[in-house]
Inverse folding.
């Protein structure tokens, strides 16, 4: 599987039947297949095959949780070997868990390797967010949390409380109280005019004034939680001056800073963690999507040793000792180091961004190109009024699928098309995906000019 091949209309007949059964049997909250109507059969590397035999380039990539692509053969071998030995170990020490822990600690910048302890969370990213909030509350004795507009932290009660998306929250009155949302200081020049950017507002100053003003309405703050690249929020990259200000304020006011690296972690932005590019030392950081390299869940919280009062049983869960994820993860890190895959992230990112910039000159509905490393997005605009265009992004996603490339949409009102290639993606696949995008943009332009394509 090393080229996309489309043999049927999408969805093909078998996928159509499978999707109908799914709707009958499964919850109405099904999400991805509603926008990407295919049923999956198998996958390898950057490619996935549906049950009708169509092969797609997969730049959705298990929502970014397959850094070395699908079913990397060395990782699969390790998982098989481990499966015969031990699969679940709760939080007992095991040789493979020890190797995994050591490998992850050794991926931290050298000066930080002794600063942090590691907590194994339940398998999801949201569970790590819950753990981080609890640890911050326990160690400060405070209850309120500062979060940022556009932030996404997951669907459990606490994680949803610190998430910006109003649509996702609107039916739940009992979310965690005491959460304050501040503008996110991004380097963006987005066309979405109501998303504040640093040209319109100094977000760091805004936060500073609230922290200093005795009448700002803030109580005692337990934590500030921040993404450095807002993935679900629309690929907004935090501006360095904003992050420095937030960091300095968190030091001055003794507020633990939680950096959510669930999506940015494990190499996605070109460094092992995005925070390495910001010259900060988070008090807590969390990661999960990329930890095993092969999509087996294992979510981690790193916290500074000075954070106190985290006691036995403070945050537990049955599925915290996934030995299969650990065995794959140890080897994923080895491969990422040996094959210098972080260099590949930077190189492929630049190639994609350069090409998208060229396409942007040609196609007026392409707006800002945003993101870092292999976590990229393009805002889709209404060609006439130049506002971000949800219908346009959806149509482009549909055409892209029909042409053999799976991409996600995200951002405010789903107006950004998102690319999440594997970190080890090759130049042939990148070029193939860019050709598909160019073809789709041409087709979309014809559609909006009312010619068919
Ligand atoms: C930044 C961030 N935090 C938290 C989460 C939640 O992770 P999960 O879906 O594994 O609960 C996500 C998921 O996309 C995320 O992108």
């Amino acid at each position: 599987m090393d080229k996309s091949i489309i043999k049927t209309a999408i969805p093909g007949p078998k996928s159509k039947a499978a999707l109908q059964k799914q709707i009958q049997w499964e919850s109405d909250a099904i999400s991805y297949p509603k926008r990407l109507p295919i049923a999956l059969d198998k996958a390898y590397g950057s490619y996935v095959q549906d049950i009708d035999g169509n092969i797609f380039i997969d730049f959705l990539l298990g929502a970014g949780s397959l850094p070395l692509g699908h079913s990397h053969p060395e990782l699969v071998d390790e998982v098989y070997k481990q499966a015969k030995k031990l699969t679940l170990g709760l939080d007992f020490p095991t040789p493979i868990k020890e190797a995994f822990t050591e490998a992850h600690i050794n991926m931290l910048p050298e000066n930080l390797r002794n600063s942090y302890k590691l907590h194994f969370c339940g398998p999801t990213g949201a569970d790590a967010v819950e753990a981080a909030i609890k640890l911050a509350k326990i160690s400060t004795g405070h209850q309120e949390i500062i979060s940022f507009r556009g932030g996404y932290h997951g669907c459990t009660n606490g994680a949803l409380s610190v998430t910006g998306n109003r649509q996702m929250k609107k039916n739940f009155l009992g979310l965690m109280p005491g959460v304050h949302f501040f503008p996110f200081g991004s380097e963006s020049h987005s066309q979405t005019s109501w998303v504040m950017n640093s040209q319109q507002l100094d977000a760091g100053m805004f936060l500073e004034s609230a922290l200093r003003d005795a009448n700002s309405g803030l109580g005692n703050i337990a934590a500030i939680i921040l993404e450095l690249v807002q993935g679900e929020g629309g690929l907004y990259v935090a501006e360095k001056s904003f992050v420095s200000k937030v960091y300095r304020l968190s030091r001055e006011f003794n507020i633990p800073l939680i950096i959510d690296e669930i999506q940015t972690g494990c190499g996605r932005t070109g460094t092992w963690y995005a925070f390495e590019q910001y010259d900060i030392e988070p008090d807590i950081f969390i990661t999960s999507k990329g930890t095993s390299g092969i999509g087996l869940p294992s979510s981690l919280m790193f916290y500074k040793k000075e954070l106190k009062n985290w006691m036995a049983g403070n945050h537990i869960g049955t599925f915290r000792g996934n030995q299969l994820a650990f065995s794959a993860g140890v080897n994923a890190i080895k491969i990422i180091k040996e094959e210098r895959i972080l260099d590949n992230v930077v190189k492929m990112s630049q190639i994609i961004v350069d090409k998208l910039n060229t396409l942007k000159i040609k196609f007026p509905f392409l707006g800002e190109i945003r993101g870092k490393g292999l976590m990229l997005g393009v805002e889709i605009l209404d060609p006439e009024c130049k506002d971000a265009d949800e219908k346009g992004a959806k149509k482009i996603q549909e055409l892209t699928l029909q042409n053999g490339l799976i991409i996600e949409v995200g951002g405010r009102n789903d107006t950004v098309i998102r690319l999440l290639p594997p970190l080890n993606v090759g130049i042939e696949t990148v070029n193939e995906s860019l050709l598909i995008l160019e073809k789709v943009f041409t087709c979309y332009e014809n559609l909006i000019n009312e010619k068919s394509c």
Observations:
- The longest helix spans residues 341-362.
- Residues 63, 124-126, 129, 152-154, 227, 231-232, 260, 262-263, 288 surround pyridoxal-5'-phosphate (CB under 6 Å).
- The first strand starts at residue 40 and ends at 44.
